[in-house]
Design brief:
By secondary structure, the protein is an alpha+beta fold. The chain has one domain. It contains 1 helix and 6 strands; from the N terminus they run αββββββ. The protein has one helix at about 1-70, and strands at about 85, 90-95, 105-110, 115-125, 130-140, 150-160. The protein has a 6-stranded antiparallel beta sheet with strand order 1-2-3-4-5-6. Strand 3 (about 105-110) and strand 4 form a beta hairpin. The chain is rod-shaped. The protein starts with a helix and ends with a strand.
């Protein structure tokens, strides 16, 4: 009888030891998968940030090209401004809802909301001493509304 009781205690200990080992392996694997998921999200955000930065850079180059060719001279009114600019394969249309005299906003026409796009902002500042042009390029990793959308902006200020 004493032998049977001893055998039950040993099998209970083996079961407890097995459950502890499985729990330890499960917690380690969950920790590793959590780290992997966070690293994947970070690398995706880094890629999207780079896409948005290059979109902003391309937009500012396009804007500076049009600004230095006197497409937007000081004192131009929104109603008399160019309504569309084109750089490479990208077309930008004026956004009348946020454009004012001496402040023009052009948004890129996107073929899909999942594609990257950009915005060009022209601003003219005049005072008694200087006339300054401000060209701002804003790049987006995706055009549509997305919680993962990344936005980068560059601005150049220079006098004429």
């Amino acid at each position: 009888m004493n032998n049977q009781k001893k055998q039950k205690n040993i099998s209970g200990f083996a079961m407890l030891f097995t459950v502890l080992i499985i729990s330890l392996i499960l917690s380690i694997s969950l920790g590793i998968s959590n780290i992997t998921l966070k690293q994947t999200i970070l690398s995706s955000l880094a890629k999207d940030s780079q896409i948005a930065f290059y979109q902003a850079d391309a937009a500012i180059e396009c804007g500076m090209y049009y600004d230095t060719n006197d497409t937007f001279p000081l004192g131009t009114e929104v109603s008399g401004a160019t309504t569309q600019i084109t750089c490479g394969n990208n077309t930008f249309d004026i956004d009348y809802t946020v454009s004012y005299d001496d402040y023009f906003v052009f948004k890129q026409t996107a073929t899909s909301s999942a594609e990257p796009c950009s915005t060009v902002v022209f601003d003219k500042v005049t005072n008694a001493l200087t006339e300054e042009s401000i060209v701002k390029g804003i790049g987006y990793s995706v055009c549509g509304e997305s919680p993962r959308q990344v936005q980068r902006a560059l601005q150049v200020t220079y006098g004429k």
